Amino acid sequence: MIPMEHVLILGAALFAIGMYGVLARRNAVLILLSVELMLNAVNLNLIAFNVYLRPNPATGMVFSVFVIVIAAAEAGLALAIILRLFRNRRTANVDEADLLKW
Amino acid sequence: MQIHSTEQVVFYLLAVVAVAAALGVVFAQDIIHSALFLVVTLILTAGVYVLLSAEFLSLVQVLVYGGGVSILVMFAVMITRVRDARGPLDGAQKPIAIVAGLAIVTVLVLMISRTEWQQAIPAVNRPDESPVRVQRVITQTDKGQLMSDTDAIGHDLFTTFAVPFEVASLVLLVALVGAIYLARGEEDEVT
Amino acid sequence: MNPDYSLLIPEYILAVWAALVVAVDVMMPKLRRDVPAYLAALGALAAGIASVLYIDVNKGFEAIPGVTIMHVDDYTTYMRVLLCGIAVFILLMSAQFVRMRLSHAGEYSAIVLVATLGGMLMVEGTELITSWIALELLSFCFYTLVSFARRELRSNEAGLKYMLLGAFSTALFLYGLSLIYGVTGTTTYDGIAAALSNRGEDLTLALVVGFVFIIAGLGFKVAAVPFHMYTPDAYQGAPLPITAMLSTTSKAAAFALFFRLFTTAFLPAHEEWKWMIALIAAVTMMWGNLVALQQTNLRRLFAYSSIGQVGFMLIAVAAATQDAGSSLLFHMAGYAVTNLAAFTIIVVFFNREGSDEIADLAGLAERQPFLALAMVTALFSLAGMPLFAGFFTKFMLFVSGWDAGLEWLSGVAVVASLISLYYYLMVIRQMYVIAPRVPGRFRTPALLWGVIAVLVVGVFFLGIWPAPLLDAADTAAAFLFRA
Asked: For C268-323, how does the pLDDT look when each residue is reduced to its tens digit (9 = 90+)?
């Protein structure tokens, strides 16, 4: 039997690592990957709470289905914008996109 | 720490490798490696989902991330030729980020371990012994209880959450229109 | 029993109309490029009229018995009408702009409608998943719209920054929601409120951490300091009418969600989050107004001024009383009218001169007295001068904060408000005192002249005779505090 706290701690670790990635990286694709890590941590939390604390109804699991949907859509749209920026400027680094003050 | 079952052994293995791969995502100096590490992390978490008896979600996770998102990222990396980009992949704010990451993980771990999660269970269902254990999700319907998680998710998705489900389809539509509009080359544009 | 689908008619209208606009645009390629925007404005108007029919309706949308995922009440109606009204004006000011500078007018107008739809769902959602997915709908529309001028580097850049930070804030927000779900075991607002009012002692820490994440996530969406970094960039890079929309639709909807979530679901834990929001409010209004002093670009100025306004509106969320609710709704309407007026003027100027630098406004009073005068009205209203809409709405907000025991916060707000007067006066000085750089008068197009005139009259109307709207706001807010 896995203690719930350990699942949550795994989630917390992934979340913090993702947050580090968002703050430290300067490449837009890498920032996006880090956000995916954070969303994954959210899903772990939701599922853990669902199965350990409130097995009826399956709200947490439905919630995580939505999170996965949005995460995938986010990746698609963000990559399209990155592509567009690259076409116009040939860079995918957020701090080289410096027409506007960052 | 006492280890009681194979389940637990598998969980700790998965967790350690997943965290290691996640560190790989944020520390790798090659963008392709990062993307591959992300796929590893996400598939290993899918394994954790199985241990938590969420088989359907673990399948979705593998299909959506292992299949869809990773391919998308690879394409983006290929097209934008990020690998040829000059300069490091990390910004100057890296030290601050390390501090922030460590602070967040400390706060969260403290919060998780200091919280008496038992109290979140309604008093009637609260188990006598600690700690709480995994249960199969169920959903009550007119015809009784749905016992598999796939059944339960399907049922809830199309009854309680039918409206958000429709709204999610609108979100996907907007993302689709936006992505096509933005990514498509223009007639007068050299690509 | 089936849920009452007839509660969502305004939403259906918007969705169908959006599809219609795209279809018309695709079927008739020879159509002038401003027509889709006018067509879409009609749709927003229709949805607004349909929303009015729900006055005094007070009904939950029960997806299954006992689970109310949305609620249509006067609060919803007030915001629905406001959001539709904003959409009408945004589309009217877009028409000429789109014709001159953007392609794909059909998609543009349709996405504006869908964004309004998302905003409406955010307002009426009383369940975390529903509200959050509506928030995502609004955000996705804005990610697309901000980068819509796809050949302009600034727009791409703004879109990218906005999107990445938006995704990050979504992750923070969701982590907070997951903790709330863990503590309360439910996602409906009334379920959460019930669970919070008899929660176990040892859950408080998880709850506080959850609130921190939720406030951070929503802080990004409403652009509160320190989560505001993207705002000036998004405001400057986005197509101009979308900047106006960011400062009105996005703020109004996000605040409506913010207020409903915190006053219905989280009210039993008020002591836990009151200080966080009060703190953020104080920092936001001071920072926004101080940084605004140094801006040279009109859009960045408005970005920081809107950050300052967010600080004022956060007072209401921190106070979380019925009076605060009604003054928040009232302020939102006043702010929307004023900001729309200001942005329509900027659009006219930009269409004509292609510039949005404050310096280029020099001598506007000579070149186009009507625009300059209207701009003065808008700026005085934003600064909160008596006779203009902004005075009364701000005053109500500060008083409600004072009454809720946040005297120091109201004090800070008055100081911040005085600071803001300075940079608004600088713009007025530019228009009236400095000699024009480019000689020659120009005319305002008739339609936009009319739009500006209507909005300016609105600013004065709300400033001089606020009673009708205030009553409406009062009734609307009362619905949140019924239980």
From this structure: 999 989 999 999 999 999 999 999 999 999 999 999 999 999 999 999 999 999 99
Q: With bands split at pLDDT 50, 70 and 90, how would you rate the model's confidence at B187?
A: low
Do residue B75 and residue B141 come from a single domain? no
- Specify the pLDDT at position B191: 40
CA Rg value for chain A: 17
- Whether residues B9 and B77 fall in one domain: yes
Residue B130 has pLDDT above 70, yes or no: no
Residue B100 domain flag: no
Identify the three-state secondary structure at position B1.
coil
Mutation pick from C114, C137, C208 vs chain B, by most beta carbons of B within 10 Å, is C137
Q: Is B47 on the interface with A (CB under 8 A)?
A: no
**Residue in B with minimal Cα distance to A2:** B8
Q: At which of B44, B68, B85 does a domain end?
A: B85
| B39 is a domain residue | yes
Q: CATH number of the domain at A4-89, out of 3.40.50.2300, 3.40.50.720, 3.40.190.10, 1.10.287.3510?
A: 1.10.287.3510
- List the beta bridge partners of residue C60: C71
- From chain C, pick out residues whose CB is under 8 angstroms from the CB of B122: 185
Domain count across chain B:
2
Angle at C368 between CA C365 and CA C371, to 5 degrees: 85
What digits encode the pLDDT tens for the residues C401-436?
999 989 999 999 999 999 999 999 999 998 999 888
C68 CB near a chain B CB, below 8 Å? Answer: no
Lowest-confidence segment of A9-18, B123-132, B156-165, C1-10 by average pLDDT: B123-132
Residues of C in contact with B189 (CB under 8 A): 151
- Is the pLDDT at B178 greater than 80? The verdict is yes
Helix (H, G, I), strand (E, B) or coil at C72: strand
CA distances from C38 to B178, C46, C95, C432, C456 (A): 21, 13, 7, 34, 21
ipTM of the complex: 0.93
Residues, chain B: 191
Are B16 and B74 within one domain? yes
The ranges assigned to domains in chain C are: 271-483
Q: Identify the CATH number of the domain in which residue B63 sits.
A: 1.20.120.1200
Touching A (3+ Cβ pairs <8 A), the chains are B, C
Mean pLDDT of chain C: 92
Residue type (1 letter), C146: V
Residue A25, beta-bridge partner list: B90
Q: pLDDT per residue over B48-76, tens digit each? A: 999 998 999 999 999 998 888 888 888 88
Are residues A52 and B133, on separate chains, in Cβ contact within 8 Å? Answer: yes
pLDDT at C148: 92
**Digit-coded pLDDT (tens) for A88-101:** 776 666 666 545 44
Looking at the structure, tell me whether residues B5 and B78 fall in a common domain: yes
Question: Residue C198: is it exposed, middle or buried by C-beta count within 10 angstroms (0-12/13-18/19+)?
Answer: exposed
Range of the domain at B6: 1-85
As given in the structure block, the two tokens for residue A19 are: 């947050």
- Write the CA distances from C258 to A13, A59, C218, C248, C334, integer angstroms: 28, 22, 7, 15, 19
Contact C368, C444 (CB under 8 A): yes
